[in-house]
């Protein structure tokens, strides 16, 4: 079963990094204000995601974004080069 590492952009322009086994369900939770960190920063929008083989791998990827191994410049480059048509099923 596939899992996902994803990046949301919040209304205050901050990024939220997450991982999940069900991206559609998790995005709905963010939009409904059920995530403590993103609730006060709504609306949020999905700007990037990666499909991973396991949830453990997705969580590793999320952590690499959070702990500075992937610099902000690289993250913004990943987002700018991500095809917008891949986001359509989750919008």
Task: Tell me briefly what this model is.
By secondary structure, the protein is an alpha+beta fold. It is built from 3 helices and 3 strands. The longest helix is centred in the middle third of the chain and has 12 residues, at 55-66.
**Mean pLDDT rating:** 94
Question: What is the radius of gyration?
Answer: 12 Å
Helical/strand content category: alpha+beta
* Strand order, sheet with most strands: 2-1-3
Described by strand count, sense and barrel closure, the largest sheet is: 3 strands, antiparallel
Number of domains: 1
CATH topology label? GIY-YIG endonuclease
Low-confidence stretches: none
What sort of overall outline do the alpha carbons produce when their principal axes are compared? Answer: globular
Taking the alpha carbons of the first and last residues, their distance comes to: 22 Å
Keywords:
single chain, 91 residues, GIY-YIG endonuclease, three-stranded antiparallel β-sheet, 3 strands, 23% strand, globular
Please write out the topology.
Layout lengths: L2 E7 L5 E6 L2 H9 L13 E8 L2 H12 L5 H10 L10
Antiparallel strand pairs: 1-2, 1-3
What would you say this structure looks like, in words?
By secondary structure, the protein is α+β, with helices and mostly antiparallel strands. It contains three helices and three strands.
């Amino acid at each position: 079963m596939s899992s996902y590492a994803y990046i949301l952009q919040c209304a205050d322009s901050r990024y939220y990094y997450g991982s999940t086994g069900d991206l559609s369900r998790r995005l709905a939770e963010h939009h409904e204000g059920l995530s403590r960190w993103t609730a006060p920063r709504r609306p949020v929008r999905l700007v990037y995601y990666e499909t991973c083989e396991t949830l453990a791998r997705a969580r590793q990827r999320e952590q690499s974004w959070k702990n500075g191994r992937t610099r902000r410049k690289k993250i913004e480059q990943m987002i700018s080069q991500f095809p917008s048509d891949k986001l359509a099923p989750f919008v």
